[in-house]
Structure formats: C-alpha cells, structure tokens
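note to self — DONT lose this again. spent like an hour looking for the file last time. sequence + predicted structure for the chain T wanted, 294 res
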Amino acid sequence: NRLMTEEDVQYIDSMNAEWCAVIPFSFMESLSEPSLGFDSKWQWKGEKIEGCTENVKLLHEKGMKVMLKPQIWDKRGAFTGKIQMNSEEDWLLFEENYKKFILTFAKVAQNNKVELFCIGTEMKSVVIDRPQFWLDLIREIREIYDGKLTYAENWDCFAEVSFWKELDFIGIDAYFPLISVKTPDVASLNKAWEKHFLQIKSLSAQLKNFLSNKTDQFCLQNMVIAVWMKRRKHRGILKKMGMRINRRSTMHCHRCTRLSGKKISLWVVFCGSGIPIIRNLEERRIRCLPCKEK
C-alpha cells in the first residue's frame, strides 16, 4: 500500500523474481452496492494513480517486468466472487463504475509501458451473470492498451470463465488445497497436484498460456494446507494435524518484524524470512522456524 523503495525491489530480486504485481484498489461498501471508490484522498499512496506510477517506474528502472492488477476490495472483507446487484439498474451502474476504474489504470499501464494488465480478480458472479460486459470491456481496453491481458479467477471456478479466448493468458489464483496428512512425502504432493495440473493443462491446450497469479500452498511443520481455510470450519482438521489456532487475527514473528518493520495480519502468514508461522498460545513471543533455531 505504501510506495516501494529500492530496498523492497532488492528483496524481490533476491528471490530471483523477474516480475512484480502492482495492485491499486477500488473499494465498495457491500457486495450489492454499485458505487466504487478509488484514487481517494484517504487511500495509501501506493494504491493511487500517482503511487502506482512511481512504483512501476522504480521496478522498470531495476529491470523488472510489471503486472498492473487493479482490484476491488469490499470494505467488510466479503468475497468479491459473490457480488450481486439488486436490480438491472444497479448492475448497469456497477458496470459503468468498474469500467471507469479499469480503463483509468489501463491508461496508466499504457503510459508506463506495463508488460501485463489484469482486467479483474475473483469476480465469479459478475463473470457468469454479465458475460457481454466483459467482452465489451476487453474491447475498450484493447483500444487504450497494447500490452498483454489476463484475468485472475479463483482456483475453484477458473474453467467457467467464458472470455479466456479474448485474453492473452489464463490467470488462476491457485489456492488449490493439496493434502492434510501430517507428514506428506514428495510423491504424495505430486499426486495431489496431478488432478489440478491435468485440468489446467487441458484448458491451456484448448485456449491460452497459463499464468498462476497466486500460489498460497506451503509447507508448515511438514504439512501442506490452504491459507484460505476458515478457522471455525476447519478447526477440527487443524487440531488433528497438531496445530494450535490463535483467537486473534494478528500474527507476526517478533524478530522478523523488528528487522523488516512489517506486521502481517493473517492467522497463517509468511514472515520476513519467507517461512510460514502459526500462533502458539503458550508463547508470548512468536518465532518463525528459522528464528527459533537461532
């Protein structure tokens, strides 16, 4: 949300990354509210037009490629895949507001020679209920922006997108749940991935190149889980896996936070060293695995 620094880019480069996503946000009051607010005075500079432009320029100066990914955020934290207007009038107003948001940043992408532009993120209901809107939007974006286009759909419904052929890449937020056993081996993980891989491969062969916009599976105490699991719903599963769940949302490794100055509010997170951690209710100070070993 803030402006990037040279140190931020150096950290990204240290992971051998060649691309970086810059994400400006537009905010909606609820999933049935057609108005969208963006580039507002109260927003962080890194979310606004000026900040995104500065971040893109810095990344390009350091030799990195950029995906500009304007995204809706519901102020209550609701999932944007369930957006549903109450009337046709509201739908048309929402579409007009969303088009204004996307075309604004399509111009930013064109003016700054951004390599890849994402036209939307995890908007299943809008994609399924309003297919013509997306075709019209893509056409208008192409008139403004001459780079590559993608759309980022959730892992469980990416095959339902009707307009992949109009884009350059199939974008998937790959939160696929893999396996819940306590100590999976490599063969088990490969097998768990196989069905997802075959589905992606089949779709990609028919349509476009595949682009994974997000991959949030990771190894945690020798276990592979999905970061989006809701605590209450999966409490039993996680207890069987030997995990403790904190009642508060904020978690961070004290040592990594002290070094990086960043505090991440997720119940399972990547800390500064890149290793996921969980809250231990018996510990007043939290450590990620590498920090515990030091």
